[in-house]
Amino acid sequence: MFLTISTSGAAGRPATDLGFLLHKHPDKAQRFSTSHGTAHVLYPEAGEERCTAALLLEVDPVALVRKGKERGRGGAPDSALAQYVNDRPYAASSLLAVAIGSVFSSAVKGQCTARPELPGQVWPLRIEVPVLPARGGAGLVERLFAPLGWKVTARPVALDERFPEWGDSRYVSLVLEGELRLADALRHLYVLLPVLDDAKHYWISSDEVDKLLRAGEGWLEGHPEQRLITNRYLGRRWSLTRDALDRLALARLAESDDTEPEELDNAVDEAEDTAERPVPLAVQRRQAILGVLRRSGAARVLDLGCGQGQLVGELLKDARFTEVVGVDVSVRALKEASRRLRLERMTERQAARVALLQGSLAYTDRRLTGYDAAVLSEVIEHLDLPRLPALEYAVFGAARPGTVVVTTPNVEYNVRWETLPAGHVRHGDHRFEWTREEFRAWAVEVAERHAYDVDFAPVGPEDPEVGPPTQMAVFRKHDTTTKHDTTGKHDTTRTTETTKEAKAA
Ligand code: SAH
User: Fold this and answer.
1) How far does residue 286's CA lie from ligand 1's centre (Å)?
2) How far is the CA of 243 from the centre of ligand 1 (A)?
3) Number of domains in the chain
4) Which of 262, 379, 392, 471 has most ligand 1 atoms within 8 Å of CB, for mutation?
5) What is the pLDDT of residues 317-335, one digit of tens each?
6) Pick from 205, 221, 236: which residue ends a domain?
7) Which of 13, 32, 283, 437 is least surrounded by CB atoms within 10 angstroms?
8) Are both 208 and 302 inside the same structural domain?
9) How many degrees, rounded to 5, is the angle at CA 210 between CA 206 and CA 214?
10) What CATH code is carried by the domain that includes residue 453?
11) Which of 290, 293, 328 for a ligand 1 pocket mutation test, highest count of atoms within 8 Å of Cβ?
């Protein structure tokens, strides 16, 4: 298993400077023991004009299997024989990526104390990986490396050259050429070799997300295959992938001036301190919601789909809200909310005002009845459309708070987000995004079915053509004591229908 890195040197510098960058002297062959075998670094050629470093990894298959077992699971296939007889020792794969990370760790970080100016320079580089497992074929290899500035030559390797009719193996022989910083080149390989291999040899834990984001910094945020890369790198574990995609979206948005919905929430705390920054949309949304709640005279408030509890925190700052309950289906979000709100360190009196409940809004929940107001801030679009009637019934039919505030993205505005590719929703987990017309139609029907009135308000800068980035509906329950009877009857029949829907859903 090996790869070579060649260069003809940066402007006016000898090619052998590669040795400084890699922290490995061109005159020496060096060995390093890694967790899965021995890595060798040597220089097949080291001249002023051209210098090539080779990284060769000798994998110890027994150690590999032992490791896999220790970790309880691994890429090692199930059958006992296959554990020993597989391609791991011969093909470049995630093991090679791990070796790059450990043997060239300073180079990956772009550190070079002896020649501090070198890591920042762009070098003509040629990287060869003679045998690279590539699930997805040469086409995918191209799609992964080309957007990063590489000229890609990926030649499929025949299963057996003596029998061309057998066709190609799943290996390619890869040559990458480009003018890049060495640290970037190594970080591309570190992430993309295992992505192409798509069979990690070790158990993927949540710190892999941090590793991916560190190695992907500066290039993964904008990569057109970001989703595939993230999903495969994280062993197709959806919760980790989602976490990583959220954080990538955050990084991308934090860079641009645009402020975007929930993804920005984590960055909001810092942003709130700096007055010159435009007020992030997430903050504007919370201000709008707080305004509505204050005017409604509500004291006991539900935040449904509270996420990490930012709105709950804002509500608690205002003494008029005597009881604040955050509800979310995600235990992870609630843990984060609890940490942010410092629930554990609250005085008993403070703590008596707040509760965080785990629950799904797609089911009626008795704990949610009897409140003055409920907020659904950027939540409905996270439900599959067929589940929406169930949420509608749980909130408007069963819990029936006096005021309900619903916010959701206005999809028409998406063309104004420069960072958002055409036709994409704003967040990986959004199941739909509505136009103003669609949102209105839904809200008006909901109001009719459940005896509420509804008004609409924009949140964020309103564009003359496409409207505001966020749309808000404020529902007020008809006063049951004074309202005419017909609505009540209408309401009852419709409610029964929706109950059936909710049960069926
Ligand atoms: N209200 C917050 C968070 C919005 S993100 C804000 O405005 O920033 C959407 C939240 O809805 C997530 O925390 C998600 O876990 C939650 N959610 C999605 N489906 C849900 C369901 N069926 N029941 C309860 N919460 C749900």
Assistant:
1) 15
2) 14
3) 2
4) 379
5) 999 999 999 999 998 899 9
6) 236
7) 437
8) no
9) 160
10) 3.40.50.150
11) 328
